[in-house]
Design goal:
461 residues; alpha/beta; Arc Repressor Mutant, subunit A; Aspartate Aminotransferase, domain 2; Aspartate Aminotransferase, domain 1; 3 domains; four-stranded antiparallel beta sheet; globular
């Protein structure tokens, strides 16, 4: 059996603690690590990423991974940032300081007591009936009115997307439309898909609905995938008018829409409705995750499915994992049932709204002319469009040397839509007091790169 990434993480931490791996020591390469730990390269990558996110190791572009140095007070920082701490705008998990660890521990203990006999058998493939009842109640607050029988508990919303991409749909069509850009998980799910995959640009002003209608009318489209609010990576949200129009088009041309509402809980504006609220025909497939608002390690989400897809979806999901983890389902059930989730989401909305305001203020203050950015009310994702002469990967490498980690967004585009000058940022885990200084470093870095580019051009003349 392949070694779990958690085991690799723990082994490396123990070696650091015992002094076998000292600050500045280089770790094995991904290939060497896979051989040493007898596992896949992806497992080593995941382990290193976990250690990097907790600042126990750091990456040096074109070189490898190194054990982090310790500063006074025990704080760890990679030498790639010089004397500066790395401000991480790449990692987009929930704010660690606001995570309900203790509350969820109570819920987990209650789940163990409640389901201790069931742990010795396989659970329902569709998800615990009692959890689905609580989810149906929870969804009503999001204007998603459905019954437990149509709710399918999944091991993270990405599992639902993977399954749906591969299923034949009741409309008998075979092609897919996705917004551009789109999060990397969806790009990976579409890799190797046998039908046509069409892209449609999602910008600050919304989407070209006439072009979308043309795809629906002429493109033999089985489904259109969209994040209806707090889009990944731009942070944009569709207006209610646009959502209604998309639903009308889906009904007219017999197209399904997969509505990914992965952060709908964070939308504090009661008048914003999901597409599902406008759909009496059953063409909207509603998908939701709890990873971004609670604990990523929870790995639970849901899909609300029309009757024509329910049996095929359950068969495909059961073939992949039999059922989603019983104890985490039970803990989420207790968390929803007790009212803890409602209180938690109220706190999270305030945190991310504040972070988003600080980010937008810093953008307007520190980014140089010629730099674009998405105006988003989400504290999770925004994008920076670099001046035309700069490339995202080179800029990200340079900014890391200045103590800022950002995410180049090239992998979030279909090949024909590929953008080389876009960075994705998240402030979900960045302390409020570091947002302004981090964006200032980015702005200064962009100016320096532009200056260097200008000097090269002058010399070449």
């Amino acid at each position: 059996m392949e070694m779990l990434y958690e085991v690799i993480v723990e082994q490396l931490l123990q070696e650091m603690k015992a002094g076998k791996r000292m600050p500045g020591d280089k770790l094995p390469s991904i290939r060497e690590g896979a051989d040493a730990f007898a596992c896949s390269r992806n497992t080593v990558i995941r382990a290193y990423r976990e250690l990097e996110q907790t600042h126990r190791i750091y990456a040096v572009p074109q070189s490898g991974y190194y054990v982090a140095h310790r500063r006074h007070g025990g704080e760890e920082v990679g030498s790639a940032a010089g004397v500066q701490d790395v401000i991480d705008f790449e990692w987009a998990g929930p704010d660690r300081s606001a995570m309900p660890y203790r509350d969820f521990q109570i819920c987990m203990n209650e789940a163990i007591e409640r389901y201790r006999e069931d742990m010795f058998t396989y659970s329902e493939g569709q998800g615990l009936a009692s959890l689905r009842f609580q989810l149906a109640r929870h969804l009503r607050d999001l204007q998603v009115f459905t019954v437990p029988e149509r709710i399918y508990v999944v091991t993270g919303s990405q599992q639902a997307l993977n399954v749906l991409v591969g299923l034949p749909f009741p409309n008998g069509k075979r092609n897919i439309v996705v917004e551009q850009p789109v999060h990397p998980g969806m790009i990976e799910s579409l890799r190797g898909y046998e039908g046509e995959v069409y892209g449609i640009t999602y910008e600050e002003g919304g989407m070209d609905l006439e072009r979308l209608e043309a795809f629906f009318r002429e493109g033999d489209v089985k489904f259109f995938y969209t994040v209806s609010r707090f889009h990944n990576p731009t942070g944009y949200s569709h207006t209610n008018e646009a959502r209604k129009r998309m639903v009308e088009l889906a009904q007219r041309y017999d197209v399904y829409i997969i509505e990914d509402d992965y952060m709908g809980d964070l939308d504090g504006y009661a008048r914003n409705d999901p597409m599902f609220a406008y759909d009496p025909s059953g063409r909207i497939i509603y998908v939701k995750s709890f990873s971004k608002v609670m604990l990523p390690g929870l790995r639970l989400g849901l899909a609300v499915l029309p009757d024509g897809l329910r049996e095929a979806f359950l068969q495909a999901k059961s073939a992949a994992d039999v059922h989603s983890p019983l104890l985490t389902q039970g803990a989420l059930e207790v968390y929803l049932e007790s009212g803890m989730f409602t209180a938690h989401i109220g706190r999270m909305r305030d945190i991310y709204r504040r972070k988003a305001v600080l980010l937008q203020e810093a953008y307007s203050k520190y980014l140089p002319p010629g730099t674009a950015y998405s105006r988003s009310s989400s504290g999770f994702y925004t994008t920076i469009g670099l001046p035309a002469s700069l490339r995202a990967q080179a800029a990200a490498d340079y900014l890391l040397e200045r103590g800022v980690r950002v995410d180049p967004a090239q992998r979030m585009y279909l090949p024909e839509f590929r953008q080389e000058g876009v960075l994705r940022l998240s402030v979900s885990q960045v302390e409020d007091g570091l947002i302004e200084s981090g964006i200032r470093r980015i702005g200064d870095g962009i100016r320096e790169l532009l200056r260097q580019r200008s000097e090269v051009r002058f010399v070449s003349r």
